From TrEMBL:
It comes from the Bacteria. GO terms for biological process: seryl-tRNA aminoacylation. Keywords: Coiled coil, Cytoplasm, Ligase. This is Serine--tRNA ligase. Gene3D superfamilies: Bira Bifunctional Protein, Domain 2, Serine-tRNA synthetase, tRNA binding domain. PANTHER family: SERYL-TRNA SYNTHETASE. One of its GO terms (molecular function) is ATP binding. InterPro entries: aa-tRNA-synth_II/BPL/LPL, Ser-tRNA-ligase_type_1, Ser-tRNA-synth_1_N, SerRS_1_N_sf, tRNA-bd_arm. It holds the Pfam family Seryl_tRNA_N. Residues 1-111 form the Serine-tRNA synthetase type1 N-terminal domain. Residues 70-100 form a coiled coil.
């Protein structure tokens, strides 16, 4: 998610970035976010000023009562009560505008680095570096599950019964090979100064929404119903 300050100061720059990404259909979001941000900050300012005034009047009530000026104390009480209703409305707008602004900002794409060549699809990709020549085999390349089946190293039927289509159990030597490769990769990186870390397997939505929109996250990641927790990829 881009910094709102950039959109606030230079909305044209944000729109130009969208064009570079061929996301012209999202350009209108910039104007929506710009106006909503303006309204949101105005509400924040009004609410802050009202809280400050309410606090001042509340302090004066005690002072007036000590001085015996009950009329002034009652007048302040009346104003404080009136402010409470107005402040409640402003706080509701704060929440409403804040949530709407966040939802729009999540749909606005991050900036493309200046070094990235522009292209509408894969056919316009630019090759930067090439190592050797690709080898084209003279035989049909088998799918990885076919290879594992030849070694009795996979059970898709049993896994399908417990987890659904597309899942599989790794068995015997194939399972051992899987673990061995992971161990080799782990030790390879540790020997080069990296710290081995096992992270939590679940993360909160605010961690993910920094890199993708809520709609993308909700459609691409497994979620625990009733909890703000998603399975890591």
């Amino acid at each position: 998610m881009i910094d709102i300050a950039i959109l606030r100061e230079n909305p044209t720059l944000v729109k130009e970035n969208m064009k570079k990404k061929f996301q012209d259909d999202k350009i209108g979001l910039v104007d929506e976010a710009y106006k909503l941000d303006k309204d949101y900050r105005e509400v924040l300012t009004k609410a802050s000023e009202l809280r400050s005034m309410r606090n001042r009047l509340s302090k004066e009530i005690g002072q007036f009562m000590r001085e015996g000026n009950m009329e002034a104390a009652e007048n302040n009480k009346r104003q404080v009560n009136e402010m409470a209703d107005e402040l409640k409305q402003l706080e509701e707008l704060e929440t409403k505008y804040g949530n709407e602004l966040k939802a729009i900002m999540m749909k606005i794409p991050n900036f493309i680095d200046d070094s990235v060549p522009l292209g509408k699809d894969d056919s316009e990709n630019v090759e930067i570096t090439k190592y050797g020549e690709p080898v084209v085999p003279d035989f049909e390349i088998p799918y990885h599950t076919e290879i594992m089946e030849k070694f009795d190293g996979i059970d898709m039927d049993a896994a399908g019964r417990v987890a659904g289509q597309g899942f599989y159990y790794l068995m015997g030597d194939v399972a051992r090979l899987h673990s061995a490769i992971l161990s080799y990769a782990r030790d390879f990186m540790i020997d080069r100064g990296f710290t081995y870390v096992i992270p939590p397997y679940m993360i909160r939505s605010n961690v993910v929404t920094g890199v993708m929109s809520f709609e993308e996250m909700d459609s691409m990641m497994y979620k625990i119903e009733g909890e703000d927790l998603y399975l890591i990829g």
